[in-house]
Amino acid sequence: MTKLAIAINLNRCVGCHTCANACKMQNNVPMGMLWNRILTKDCDVIDGALGQYPNLTRVYLPVQCQHCENAACQKVCPTGATYKDASGRVEIDYDKCIGCRMCMAACPFNARVFNWDEPVREPAFNYGDARVPVRAKGVMEKCTLCKERTDDGDIPMCVRVCPGRARTFGDLDDPDSDISKLACSPEAHHLLEEKGTRPQLFYIGL
Question: Distance (Å, rounded) from C-alpha 47 to C-alpha 29?
Answer without folding.
Answer: 22
